[in-house]
Predict the 3D structure of the following.
Amino acid sequence: MLKIDNIKTFYGNIQALKGVTIEVSEGEVITLIGANGAGKTTTLMSISGVVPPRSGEITFQGEKIHKKSPDEIVKLGISQVPEGRRIFPGLSVMENLEMGAFLRTDKAGIKEDLDYVLDLFPILAERKSQAGGTLSGGEQQMLAISRALMAKPKLLLLDEPSLGLAPLIVKRIFDIITKINQEHNTTIFLVEQNANMALQVAHRGYVMENGMITLVDDAKKLAANEEVKKAYLGI
Amino acid sequence: MEYFFELFLGGLTRGSIYALIALGYTMVYGIIELINFAHGEIYMIGAFTALIVASLLTMAGMDGMAVLALSMVVAIIYAGAYGLTIEKIAYKPLRQAPRLSPLISAIGMSIFLQNYVLLAQTSDFLPFPSLVPEFSFMEPYEHIFSSSELMIVVVTAVSMLVLTYLIKFTKMGKAMRASAQDRTMAMLAGINVNRIISTTFIIGSTLAAVGGVLIASHIGQINFYIGFIAGIKAFTAAVLGGIGSIPGAVLGSLVLGWTESFATGYVSSDYEDVFAFTLLVLILIFRPAGILGKTKTQKV
């Protein structure tokens, strides 16, 4: 479904990605783990078209997307829950959700998805006219995921959804991610530092170091891999 | 007491004009953090366009409100096109550049437009016809508040209401607010931020043109330099109210208008600017973000 082929991405003169190749099949949950500054967020931003790669190719459902603008990419069915949630602080919860569906015109479909996310996270219905900036961290993460779902994505990119959240909420978020994958057959690309959690929900995993992929394997095998254990699982 | 009212209403009129211009500064700043120094020139170009259209229409034998309405519409379209073009030529190519570059580009654009009008028209003051008819119901008050002042205040109030509706309730307005709050996230949500920025420039230019036409008709003369003066004042008003904040720009403009009006009336018209800028300095010392501005904590 998504094919990232040897992409190299730069911030000015600094090279963040030194030839990254990742493949994701339809219906899969894959995770990209790695230390701070390895290039995980950059990978997602390259897919979304915010920081386009300088060379290499990204193909989504047979269509080359590495030269497309972010809104065209969203339109094709890729939406992202960025690191730090990035809720629009001055917009109400409802308006934040509306912005997620910005490119859609099918009113009935939007209503249906709105009901779905409010059912997934009932707390958002309670907070619906509150400003996004006044929500707690966990609620903001729920809103960020809901906002991305409002675009009706075929591929959902999640950047560190567990960051800064209480363990109990992290567990809930991950349960929901699994649920979204199973109920909607939404393909999920999960970037995480919490490798433990990520490898539990993912089918396959990639390990990234210094802008390069160093390991690819089934999630279970990765979790059992001695090097991964030592470096990322703290065992 | 009547004198006080006269000054109050005079200040309200000034403030209204400042508000129409200040909104353009503050909205653009809100989205791309750029002080569009060429914005005052849009106001001036709006006035010149209206002068040309009004002269043509008058020659063709039209008069009254129709001339005002038509020249206003043409001025709006023309100014909107200028705003859009300026953004495309002077700012868009510099979107990724360091922040100083688009600022310098803005100053260059401002000087360019002034001199372009200077060469295309003249450096002298040109008489501008009074486009607002004298309403008969205003006659008893004409000595403290003229018909054209009333027109300025009413048109400004209506413009503010329309703008508020646009920004609060339409999808485009919500996308504008979203882009101002987090541009990258707006892109990730599928909002075409470039289009939003263009729309912002068009709206700001439209409002400035409305202000330009109204004030030119009220004062009765224009030249290529009026945009610079009005631009600086409106920019001051935007900063006073808190740059980036829309209600702030309106409030700042009114406060500035009243300060100038009362200073002129009770002290001396020579001190008008002294009071205006003293107020600015005081506000910036005690509330650096402006009256309604929020102090942004920057994450490192």
DSSP finds ten helices and ten strands in chain A. The longest strand of chain A covers residues 14-24. Residues 85-152 of chain A form one domain.
